[in-house]
């Protein structure tokens, strides 16, 4: 069993932090979807003009959903959330 779905068909819950706040997501969800489900829409601010940025394409083509995970810049829409992950607003462009 992969650990993502138990015998009843339910997915487990993982705990992570976003911008220093405790959050929860479902195993197998991307960071973007876990944050969206928690009501978070702004993942970073534009480095050019400070405008809020969030999920746009949701398939890893654009750079709108860049976040920092444990100090590394990743796309939130293609990175699976895991227990203990530290996610911060950020990234460029």
Question: How would you portray this structure in words?
Answer:
This protein is mainly beta. The chain has one domain: 2Fe-2S iron-sulphur cluster binding domain, sarcosine oxidase, alpha subunit, N-terminal domain (Ubiquitin-like (UB roll)), CATH 3.10.20. Helix content is 8%, strand content 30%. The chain has one helix at residues 31-37; strands at 13-18, 21-26, 44-45, 52-53, 66-69, 72-75, 86-89. The strands form 2 sheets. Strands 2-1-7-5-6 form a 5-stranded mixed beta sheet, with helices on one face. Strands 3-4 form a two-stranded antiparallel ribbon. The longest helix has 7 residues, at 31-37. The mean pLDDT is 88.
Task: Write a compact overview of the structure shown.
With 93 residues, this protein is mainly beta. It contains one helix and seven strands. The strands form two sheets. A five-stranded mixed sheet has the order 2-1-7-5-6, covered by helices on one side. Strands 3-4 form a two-stranded antiparallel ribbon.
């Amino acid at each position: 069993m992969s650990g993502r779905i138990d015998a009843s068909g339910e997915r487990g819950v993982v705990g992570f932090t976003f911008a220093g706040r405790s959050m929860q997501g479902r195993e197998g969800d991307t960071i973007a979807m876990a944050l969206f489900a928690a009501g978070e829409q702004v993942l970073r601010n534009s480095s050019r003009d400070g405008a809020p940025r969030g999920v746009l394409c949701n398939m890893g083509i654009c750079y709108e959903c860049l976040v920092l995970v444990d100090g590394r810049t990743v796309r939130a829409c293609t990175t699976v959330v895991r227990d203990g992950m530290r996610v911060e607003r950020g990234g460029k462009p």
